[in-house]
Amino acid sequence: MDFVTLEPDDFAYGVSAEVVPGVNRIVAENPSKFTYRGTGTYIIGDTDVAVIDPGPALDSHRDALAAALTGRTVRAILVTHCHADHSPLAAWLRTESGAPTYAFGPHGAETAEWDIGMLPDDFGRLDLDVSANGTEAAPRESKVEESTDVGFVPDVELRSGDHVFATGPIDVTAIHTPGHTSNHTCFAMTSESAGRVLFTGDHVMGWSTTVVSPPDGDMAEYMNSLRTVAGRRDDVAIPTHGSPISNPSHFMGQLVDHRLERERQVLGAVRRGSSTIPKIVTDLYADVPIELHRPAAASVLGHLVKLLGDQLVAVDDDRGVSVFPRLDSTYRAV
Ligand SMILES: [Zn+2]
């Protein structure tokens, strides 16, 4: 599928710019392989406002947000989920403004006994440090996703359909969309001038697929949540990373098809004898830059967990049948 909603040439960091009527965006200067050009923080409304995802703990972004909010009254701080590029400045903004924070909940309590294991140190790396005795000095990671703001606890815990903000003709409600994280929430805005707008956080992005990384990420839930938002009739979807997406239902339908195709490919690779996640990634992601192979491995684990649930794949480890699937497990088709 095509990812076409890239930033325009006049894009600039730290500048509050209107993206649709009644909604302004400030982009934080935290570009990366996970964040594209950076985190977009959204300000809804004119004098009484709601802020979606205040963003990363970055002085330049905090100052830009403070400047954009001068003369405005923050009524609500809305958080899509607790990755470190989304929620950390919520604590500062709450103190500054006195406005409550709203989210589905804190970051999910990851299944304590589910250790997702490790990828080989040299997998998906271009630039390994090699020490004098020839052994690798690269840091070992058990997580291949973005880091998490575990300290965030919302003042108001949301459920789907909850109204979170209204000003003039603008009304905003929450839609729980688990998958990228278990607490991920989209925010739906209606207004006369902008129509139906869906703020999609990291659930749907215009520039890339979303990482769905166990244990907190769940591919089966992600697919259900994608179908939920694809079935809406929104005029535009506005992700945290990248530009607005027009005709979002069509785009999200393509995303569902893309994930189903990837699932078929993962199952096909296992059936052809690729029994480990590094082998599957090397097989399926040959055209993807190598620095994305570690996050791809997390998504493959996500697909394998779903295929295990569908009883199309089994874990073939010595650890026994009760073990949770891991990045370093061996898999077979059933
Ligand atoms: Zn995220």
CATH architecture of the largest domain: 4-Layer Sandwich
Number of helices: 6
Compute the average pLDDT. Answer: 88
Give the bound compounds: zinc ion
Helix content: 10-25%
Characterize the overall form: elongated
Count of extended strands: 15
Beginning-to-end CA distance, first to last residue: 30 Å
Strand fraction: 15-25%
Which sheet architecture does the biggest sheet show?
Answer: 7 strands, mixed
What strand line-up does the widest sheet have? 1-2-3-4-5-6-7
Oligomer: single chain
**What structural class do you assign from the helix and strand content?**
alpha/beta
Radius of gyration: 20 Å
* CATH homologous superfamily identity of the largest domain: Ribonuclease Z/Hydroxyacylglutathione hydrolase-like
Question: How many independent structural domains?
Answer: 2
Q: Which consecutive residue ranges, at least 5 long each, have pLDDT under 50?
A: 128-145
CATH topology of the largest domain: Metallo-beta-lactamase, Chain A
Note the run of SSEs as H and E.
EEEEHEHEEEEEEHEEHHHEE
- The CATH class designation of the largest domain is Alpha Beta
Question: What is the compact description of this entry?
Answer:
By secondary structure, the chain is α/β, with parallel strands linked by helices. It has helices at 59-69, 89-97, 219-230, 248-271, 277-284, 293-309, and strands at residues 17-20, 23-27, 40-44, 48-52, 73-78, 101-103, 156-157, 163-167, 170-176, 185-191, 195-201, 236-239, 245-246, 313-315, 331-333.
